[in-house]
UniProtKB/TrEMBL annotation:
The protein's name in its UniProt record: GDP-mannose 4,6-dehydratase
One annotated GO biological process: 'de novo' GDP-L-fucose biosynthetic process
EC number(s) given by UniProt: 4.2.1.47
Organism, as annotated: Mangrovibacterium diazotrophicum
Reactions listed under catalytic activity: GDP-alpha-D-mannose = GDP-4-dehydro-alpha-D-rhamnose + H2O
Alphabetized UniProt keyword annotations: Lyase, NADP
GO molecular function: GDP-mannose 4,6-dehydratase activity; NADP+ binding
PANTHER family named in the record: GDP-MANNOSE 4,6 DEHYDRATASE, GDP-MANNOSE 4,6-DEHYDRATASE
Family: Belongs to the NAD(P)-dependent epimerase/dehydratase family. GDP-mannose 4,6-dehydratase subfamily.
Domain NAD(P)-binding: 6-358
Cofactor(s) recorded in Swiss-Prot or TrEMBL: NADP(+)
Top-rank taxon: Bacteria
Cited Pfam families: GDP_Man_Dehyd
Length: 384
């Protein structure tokens, strides 16, 4: 008999990778997607199966983490062996604009799932998508399973409730419920308004001459970035353990946003430098490795870039305080020792590999946009 998994947030970055991973392992995968006025299944369309055919192993259900009855009915129908609760309003900055909704979806949403499993008397194992944002204001580094939490956003506070209600249901009702405290993880299908993807999209467009510059927020904050493909494997491993527990998943290496931008530029042969401080800081292209640029971007775009550098019109990054957060998380660096020893988890990608994967994908996407634009078709610009 195939194992049955239910993934909330299946249309998101992690949900899409996890669904593909579990399908390859022979699972029947059920996913909860939200009703939207437009199609919102781009990331899983390659896994889509016609609902009119028999023997599907990927089944989607309409639902929402704010709707208890909906969640309880789906869990009752599906009777999953494993539940991966990945759905969330996951943008830290946006959570300051929508704090109540974030608390409802990210905090109480977790309770709704735990309580549904308990009331239905199921033995489903539950994975809760906890986050390094719980650490917030720096108490100690590197951050491990024993580091105190100090959340710094409505998102992190909601996730704090999700974390502790998961621990509480595990202890109170002996449920197999675990937290993965995942540090930032990215990929070519990362949401476009998170910092890494915003950068890899913008640098690709700048290299292709489709955009002049990009406006960013705090360039000094530091993040421990891994690849989502590695991190979803940890989620799976956590639910395969005999005993439920909580694990930090991280790389142990931290990098500033500024250095991430430099790495993204380097990937396509552009040398980026920064001058100034705070809101006056500016990033500019100071050189080009022509061979690399031609290979990665295209020889037809080289002259324009060289001209920008020569003319001094070479600023590509400006700071706009609109992207600052009312309270920031300055430094994240995780200690994955427990996951490495107990789960036998090891990431395959390092940061350079992640940047290369994202840049390769975004350059290709933007080349397609450039081609469409030339043909007279308007493509989407994201300046958020
Ligand atoms: P995404 O933002 O890419 O995906 C979030 C998913 O949740 C989407 O499928 C979204 O649907 C869905 N969703 C949002 N609100 C609701 C709701 N009210 N009801 C049902 N579904 C909803 O996030 P990631 O894939 O990056 O992250 C997965 C989880 O892991 C999230 O809980 C996130 O907070 C957490 N996390 C992420 C980290 C990261 O670095 N990526 C690190 C640590 C934790 P739709 O597609 O319709 O918007
Ligand atoms: P984060 O990710 O808040 O860590 O949450 P994000 O990529 O949004 O920000 C990381 C850091 O970059 C700084 N920054 C900017 N961020 C955005 N989005 N846009 C900008 O223009 C910009 N400029 C600078 C931010 O201030 C911040 O310091 C992510 C989400 O996936 C959460 O759901 C998850 O829980 C955590 O990672 C771990």
């Amino acid at each position: 008999m195939s194992k049955v998994a239910l993934i909330t947030g299946i249309t998101g970055q992690d949900g899409a990778y996890l669904a593909e991973f579990l399908l390859k392992k022979g699972y029947v995968v059920h996913g909860i997607k939200r009703r939207s006025s437009m199609f919102n299944t781009d990331r899983i369309d390659h896994l889509y199966q016609d609902p009119h055919t028999d023997h599907r192993n990927l089944i989607l259900h309409y639902g929402d983490l704010t709707d208890s009855m909906n969640l309880t009915r789906i869990i009752q129908e599906v009777k999953p062996d494993e539940i991966y609760n990945l759905a969330a309003m996951s943008h830290v900055k946006v959570s300051f604009d929508t704090p109540e909704y974030t608390a409802n979806a990210d905090g109480i949403g977790t309770l709704r799932i735990l309580e549904a499993v308990r009331l239905l008397g199921l033995k489903s194992r539950i994975y809760q998508a906890s986050t390094s944002e719980l650490y917030g204001l720096v108490q100690q580094v590197p951050q491990s399973e024993t580091t105190p939490f100090y959340p710094r956003s409505p998102y992190a506070v909601a996730k704090l409730y999700g974390y502790w209600i998961t621990v509480n249901y595990r202890e109170a009702y002996k449920m197999h419920a675990s937290n993965g405290i995942l540090f930032n993880h990215e990929s070519p299908i990362r949401g476009e308004t998170f910092v890494t993807r915003k950068v890899t999209r913008a640098i690709s467009r700048i290299a292709l001459g489709m955009q002049d510059k990009v406006y960013m927020g705090n360039l000094a904050s530091k993040r421990d970035w891994g690849h989502a493909k590695d991190y979803i494997k940890a989620m799976y491993l956590i639910l395969q353990q005999d005993e439920p527990d909580d694990y930090v998943i991280a790389t142990g290496i931290t990098t500033t946003i500024r250095d991430f931008i430099k790495m993204a530029c380097q990937e396509v042969g552009l040398e980026a430098s920064f001058k100034g401080e705070g809101v006056d800081e500016v990033g500019y292209i100071s050189g080009v490795d022509e061979k690399l640029f031609n290979a990665k971007v295209g020889v037809e775009y080289l002259e324009a870039i060289k001209e920008r550098i020569k003319s001094g019109n070479n600023d590509i990054v400006h700071v706009d305080p609109m992207y600052f957060r009312p309270t920031e998380v300055d430094l994240l660096i995780g200690d994955p020792t427990k996951a490495m020893s107990k789960l036998n988890w090891t990431p395959e990608y390092d940061l350079a590999g992640l940047v290369a994967d994202m840049m390769q994908s975004d350059v290709k996407l933007m080349q397609k946009d450039a081609y469409l634009n030339k043909g007279g078709y308007q493509t989407m610009n994201y300046f958020e």
